[in-house]
Design a protein that fits this description.
nucleus, mainly alpha, single chain, globular
Amino acid sequence: MPAIRHASKRKPPPEGFSDIEDDLLIFSNQMKDAQNMPTDNIPKHQAQWPIFQISHKRSRYIYELYYEKEAISKQLYDWLLKNNYADAMLIAKWKKQGYEKLCCLRCVQTKETNFNSTCICRVPKAQLKEGQDIQCVSCGCRGCASSD
């Protein structure tokens, strides 16, 4: 006999969600397209780059709505974070000085690199050799240092 499904205990979204729901739906559709995209002809490490980039855009959108434009309430912002519409850890880094343009958390984790340092995309472009083209292996970023 199948299990009986009870009514969802999930709280309804706070007031103001309907104003941004269309934009969040667009991000959701983009994410589905990125997940269903064929990965036959690209290297394995590049297959997840579109997913990272869409997740970053969605988190940045919510961050800007709350901190820069002040267009959403604290209750809605907390609800969005709790329901995984945005990456709370990435937003916490964006609030710190020097991490305002951070692309993903993998780029600042020193344990994931060969030399126990941050990713190449965190190096300011002024310190790179002229004409040197860099690209992060983790997410495809071409530079997220705050001084750029």
